[in-house]
Design a protein that fits this description.
This protein is mainly α. The chain has one domain. 71% of the residues lie in helices and 0% in strands. The chain has eleven helices and no strands. The longest helix has 34 residues. It is globular and about 60 Å long.
């Protein structure tokens, strides 16, 4: 019975991380519109957009290869698999043994790889510009992410997310400057990876500034729906990662009953809502930066991660 309950809980988590991202995107859009004194779209508008795209026919360029056709499914599968590994409302689920930060980063990188190739496949100028800019961002974001993981792993002694969450809930974690620096760096990397303001504006199609949208301009129908859902999943993935590592309060432990699972689920949704509010407030109070200033932004994230690691080594040597 315990095994069946754990499998059921894992299935609920997989469904939860698949159903919540469009609502999160709709919530952020609605809140940003209200902050700008506009009515804004409905909270469920992203669901309607996805259903509309799924009903439409796919239009392909004559020179589109097989990679262009399968890339949306590969991207969605990689992001969904990575999101499923992150504990949302409970630890110790059947997939917890593989919930390693390094594995999650690898899955995200593989999704970016296929998206970049898909942007280059058709041979349009917009796709090439978007792919080159995305690779530029990736070459700066991934080293910063490695330093963040290095800092967290040195503090907790593991890169396994359930272990990290348990350590953060223990009294021995205390107040550590290195963890604060890692948190700030992770937020900066998450903003860049999700093409949010100030790195990119997901609501614009201006060819001189767009990054993510430039790579998916040639997609339509169900292919575009898969990519849009994967983008929403990726946003929730990074929020869930921040919540799991730095704000793990409310997570149910292995062996807890259904009540603890329900409390953990409510806590996760509330923390996602708080993250959405902070994201909307941040994006409405800051302007988009020029593309050539993005390396400075991500360079700061890299230096924060490196500084956190150095401070950790210095504090241990004293």
């Amino acid at each position: 019975m315990v095994v069946i309950a754990d499998i059921a809980a894992q299935g609920v988590q997989m469904a939860l991380v698949l159903l919540l991202p469009p609502l999160l995107v709709g919530f952020v859009r609605k809140l940003k519109a209200r902050l700008l004194s506009r009515q804004g779209p409905s909270l469920v508008q992203p669901y309607r957009d996805l259903l509309r795209l799924l009903r439409k026919d796919v239009v392909l360029a004559p020179n589109a290869s097989w990679l262009f056709r399968v890339a949306p499914y590969l991207i969605f599968s990689a992001i969904w698999a990575a999101a499923d590994l992150i504990p949302t409302f409970a630890t110790g689920l059947p997939f917890s043994w593989s919930a390693d930060i390094i594995a999650i980063i690898a899955l995200i990188a593989s999704a970016r790889f296929f998206l970049t190739l898909a942007g280059l496949d058709i041979g349009t100028s917009f796709g090439g510009i978007g792919s080159s800019r995305d690779v530029m961002i990736a070459t700066l974001a991934e080293p910063a992410m490695i330093m963040i993981v290095f800092t967290i792993a040195l503090v907790a002694g593991s890169t396994q997310l359930s272990t990290l969450a348990g350590f953060m809930l223990s009294p021995q974690v205390g107040l550590r400057v290195s963890l604060g620096l890692a948190l700030i760096a992770l937020i900066m990397v998450a903003i860049a990876e999700n093409a949010r303001i100030p790195v990119d504006n997901p609501a614009t199609h201006l060819e001189l500034t767009m990054v993510h949208e430039a790579m998916v301009l040639e997609y339509s129908g169900r292919h575009l729906a898969m990519i849009e859902l994967a983008a929403a999943l990726k946003l929730q993935l990074y929020l869930a990662l921040i919540i799991c590592v730095f704000v793990p309060w409310g997570l149910a432990r292995p062996g807890d009953g259904i009540t603890a699972y329900a409390v953990g689920m409510v806590a996760f949704i509330l923390k996602l809502g708080v993250g959405g509010v902070l994201l909307a407030l941040f994006e409405t109070t800051i302007a988009k930066m020029r593309v050539f200033r993005v390396p400075e932004f991500l360079g700061a994230a890299l230096m924060l991660g490196l500084l956190g690691t150095l401070l950790l080594f210095v504090s241990r040597s004293l």
